[in-house]
């Protein structure tokens, strides 16, 4: 299938590589010429603008940083909707607020283009391995058309309902993730401060009722899991500023519908303070360093 792909960052680039591996023909664009060149070397065709990916495209996928970028790429005077042929399926895998997703999808429908919001979970590791979870909002028929393409990049492809519901699922999930990481960080810091070995405590948590992804896959305590960001100086993984963005989306959406998210709002403030202290580029599990004393940090 001929696919246009816009946005070749930490998530978009490996997703695009997996589409190539699955045999799809790709035309790609990113503001980073180096990112485009890397995909061209892997077999894609490069484009010199976002609309340049539309040539021969049957599906267009975008993976962009925020709502403002998505609106600019799709709705601007020189945006995709000004030039895309009616009938081309549009898939936005960015993480943005649900109302913005619905706004763009409504404009796409008016132009004659079906659109899906399909944010992902699984991090950069899942993007590279092709094991992402896609949370998809949009019409059932459009989801069915997109599913084989999404399956080249992910393992779990879930239809969440109408337009915007993929984003609803994403922000709710990531709000919980941010909260759970803080909980694991507090528990690990408390246990170690009281004298238990970090690996022993983590093993108990991971075979008991406290077990969660933040404890058994991305444990925040240094040295507990060899492959976790905590054991490589919190490099890679899912950045603190990205978590802060997602928590902001969740709390903003909650405010619009007057839904209490008490722990979500507290988590947002904790990550905001941590980011303001200069740690925005670290994996979000580094939040444990807000609890550890200097002698405990590695």
TrEMBL record:
This is 3-hydroxyisobutyrate dehydrogenase. It comes from the Bacteria. Residues 2-161 form the 6-phosphogluconate dehydrogenase NADP-binding domain. GO terms for molecular function: 3-hydroxyisobutyrate dehydrogenase activity; NAD binding; NADP binding. One of its GO terms (biological process) is L-valine catabolic process. Belongs to the HIBADH-related family. InterPro entries: 3-OH-isobutyrate_DH-rel_CS, 6-PGluconate_DH-like_C_sf, 6PGD_dom2, 6PGDH_NADP-bd, HIBADH, HIBADH-like_NADP-bd, HIBADH-related, NAD(P)-bd_dom_sf. PANTHER family: 3-HYDROXYISOBUTYRATE DEHYDROGENASE, MITOCHONDRIAL, 3-HYDROXYISOBUTYRATE DEHYDROGENASE-RELATED. Transmembrane segments: none annotated. Residues 164-291 form the 3-hydroxyisobutyrate dehydrogenase-like NAD-binding domain. It comes from Phytopseudomonas argentinensis. It catalyses: 3-hydroxy-2-methylpropanoate + NAD(+) = 2-methyl-3-oxopropanoate + NADH + H(+). Pathway: Amino-acid degradation; L-valine degradation. The active site is at 170. It holds the Pfam family NAD_binding_2. Its EC number is 1.1.1.31. PROSITE patterns: 3_HYDROXYISOBUT_DH (PS00895). Keywords: Branched-chain amino acid catabolism, NAD, Oxidoreductase.
